[in-house]
């Protein structure tokens, strides 16, 4: 009889959406972009104070796991266990869980976006709940809440 091996492949989904405390404006949406800022070229004189202010305002980035995607993958591989019932019934697929990273880096509001099976989904959520705090997202130098997702592939190999 062949021995079943389990493989978990973890992928950090790259979609982030920032939650802003105030109303959304064109300026606030532009500040949440992950793309580098490009200052317009002017034929006239450039005010140095204006450029410095723009650089401070652009201190923005998305939330992330301490140590980066590699450490996140290591954590999930160590903490997500392929449930026995799922293996016995050949449940395979990708579970995607969306969650909020709060201003202090703690995680909340877990929701399954794509399900392998409820027992697999709960295993991923349990691992996320045991996770240490993330580095929160920043907009204009201020910590903000944001949404992130992780995907865990449950696949049996023979």
From TrEMBL:
It is a single-pass membrane protein. Its main location: membrane. GO terms for cellular component: plasma membrane protein complex. GO terms for biological process: protein transport; transmembrane transport. PROSITE patterns: TONB_CTD. Pfam families: TonB_C. Keywords: Cell inner membrane, Cell membrane, Membrane, Protein transport, Signal, Transmembrane, Transmembrane helix, Transport. GO terms for molecular function: energy transducer activity. The keyword Methyltransferase does not apply. It is found in: Cell inner membrane. Residues 67-158 form the TonB C-terminal domain. InterPro entries: TonB-dependent_transducer, TonB/TolA_C, TonB_C. Residues 1-26 form the signal peptide. NCBIfam families: tonB_Cterm. Belongs to the TonB family. This is Energy transducer TonB. It comes from Neolewinella aurantiaca.
């Amino acid at each position: 009889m062949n021995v079943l091996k389990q493989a978990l492949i973890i992928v950090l989904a790259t979609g982030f959406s920032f939650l802003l405390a105030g109303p959304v404006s064109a300026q606030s949406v532009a500040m949440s972009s992950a793309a580098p800022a490009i200052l317009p070229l002017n034929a006239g004189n450039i005010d140095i104070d204006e450029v410095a202010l723009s650089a401070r305002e652009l201190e923005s980035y998305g939330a992330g796991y301490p140590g980066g995607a590699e450490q996140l993958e290591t954590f999930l591989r160590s903490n997500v266990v392929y449930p026995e019932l799922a293996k016995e019934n050949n449940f395979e697929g990708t579970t995607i869980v969306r969650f909020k990273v709060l201003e202090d880096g703690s995680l909340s509001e877990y929701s399954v976006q794509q399900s392998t099976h409820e027992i697999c989904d709960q295993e991923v959520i349990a691992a996320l709940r045991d996770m240490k705090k993330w580095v929160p997202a920043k907009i204009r130098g201020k910590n903000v809440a944001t949404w992130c997702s992780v995907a865990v592939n449950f696949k049996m190999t023979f």
